């Protein structure tokens, strides 16, 4: 697994401390009381005291794997965007000392098939190696990728996607029409926009696309993979808040 030096040059490295608790597959607690949310990944979720919350498949396995990696070991933290979230958790990449060098915890979990790539518009660094590791784990059907709960969904099956409203999903399909409204862009995956799957790019996200030199209208006809939270507004929909939520698989 990649060391801090080679994983992502954009990170600002900082001393972390000793890990004394592993809450789940993407959250750890340090001896000084800081709770570290491992930015860039989403592990299967545990209830953690929430009533009527069902444990996601492989959540205990993900927690154990991270504990085996980092518990009672010193870590360093790498920052590549916002550092604190609204829950007062520290948002960082985690590097744990090991024989032969450091192990990048996020990459380890994704490559093991025990976490997915999960990014934010204010924390976009170091995603490329994570996406590559996720793709390889998916090909090899490691961990979550052998479980139907985490299957990549088909964009041309809107009825099935509606059943996943409120869930974080990966959706693949061909963009039938890319259309700009007054302040947003719609990526339509079917002919009936009030029923079929749609990805919506609002104005703040469009500014990020423009800053990256990416025109989302050029995605018309492309085969893409979209990742994000599914909601139900005129059919199943995912809001795109930053470019990394869209992976182009083929242009035509």
From TrEMBL:
Molecular functions per Gene Ontology: endonuclease activity; hydrolase activity
Keywords noted in UniProt: Endonuclease, Hydrolase, Nuclease
UniProt keyword Cell membrane present: no
Gene3D superfamilies: 2.40.50.90
Entry-linked SUPFAM superfamilies: Staphylococcal nuclease
One Pfam family, short name: SNase
Residues covered by the TNase-like domain: 13-147
InterPro entries named among the record's database cross-references: SNase_OB-fold_sf, Staphylococal_nuclease_OB-fold
Highest taxon above the source species: Bacteria
PROSITE patterns, per the entry: TNASE_3
Protein name per UniProt: Nuclease homologue
Native source organism of the sequence: Devosia crocina
Lineage, opening ranks: Bacteria, Pseudomonadati, Pseudomonadota, Alphaproteobacteria, Hyphomicrobiales
């Amino acid at each position: 697994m990649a060391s801090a030096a080679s994983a992502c040059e954009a990170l600002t490295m900082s001393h972390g401390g000793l890990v004394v608790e592993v809450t789940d597959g993407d959250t750890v607690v340090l001896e000084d009381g800081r709770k570290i949310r491992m930015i860039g990944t989403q592990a299967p979720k545990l209830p953690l005291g929430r009533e009527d919350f069902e444990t996601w498949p492989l959540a205990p396995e993900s927690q154990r794997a991270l504990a085996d990696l980092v518990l009672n070991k010193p870590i360093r933290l790498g920052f590549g965007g916002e550092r604190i979230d609204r829950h007062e958790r520290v948002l960082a990449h985690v590097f744990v000392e090991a024989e032969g060098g450091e192990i990048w915890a996020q990459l380890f979990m994704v490559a093991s098939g025990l976490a997915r790539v999960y990014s934010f518009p204010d924390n976009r660094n170091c995603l490329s190696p994570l996406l590559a590791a996720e793709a390889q784990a998916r090909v090899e059907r490691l961990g979550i990728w052998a479980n139907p709960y985490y299957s990549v969904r088909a964009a041309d099956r809107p009825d099935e996607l509606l059943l996943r409203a409120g869930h974080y999903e990966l959706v693949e399909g061909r963009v039938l029409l890319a259309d700009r409204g007054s302040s947003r862009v719609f990526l339509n995956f079917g002919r009936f926009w009030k029923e079929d799957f749609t990805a919506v790019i609002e104005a703040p996200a469009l500014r990020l696309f423009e800053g990256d030199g990416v025109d989302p209208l050029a995605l018309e006809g492309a085969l893409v993979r979209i990742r994000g939270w599914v909601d139900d507004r005129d059919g199943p929909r995912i809001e795109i808040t930053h470019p990394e939520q869209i992976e182009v698989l083929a242009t035509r």
